[in-house]
Amino acid sequence: MKKLFTLMAIAITATSTFAASEESINLRDEMTIMAQRLNFANRANSAEEFQNSMAKFIDAAEKSKATIPPKWNGDTSQFSGYQQGLQKVIDIATETSELAKQNKLSDAKEKLSELPELRTMYHKLYK
């Protein structure tokens, strides 16, 4: 599982050799933060540490949700589906944070394992 999250973090942080616009840098940065925080949450040893990582994850996801991917060149026809996908991610992250708040860290980490599947599915659709 740790290897999966590490690979996910590496894949997200991989960058193109081409110059990117400011908007794409911001979206890429938010996605990188999400991957890092997911990895940190999975390695958390306390509920507080887990919640801190998830709060930063959710913040980055909210920012990403408000940003049209630059590769779309302004075409917003898919944007509502993209936002719905990120909302599902945010909802799961919120649930995990609530579980951690109730001192159910192992349950929170188990619920967190749903995110890689969503990531894969939505990246195929919208990346």
Automatic annotation (TrEMBL):
SUPFAM superfamilies: Cytochromes. One of its GO terms (molecular function) is heme binding. Keywords: Heme, Iron, Metal-binding, Signal. One of its GO terms (biological process) is electron transport chain. Heme b binds at residues 31, 123. The keyword Ribosomal protein does not apply. InterPro entries: Cyt_b562, Cyt_c/b562. Its cofactor is heme b. GO terms for cellular component: periplasmic space. Residues 1-19 form the signal peptide. Gene3D superfamilies: Cytochrome c/b562. Binds 1 heme b (iron(II)-protoporphyrin IX) group per molecule. Belongs to the cytochrome b562 family. This is Cytochrome B562. It comes from Rodentibacter ratti.
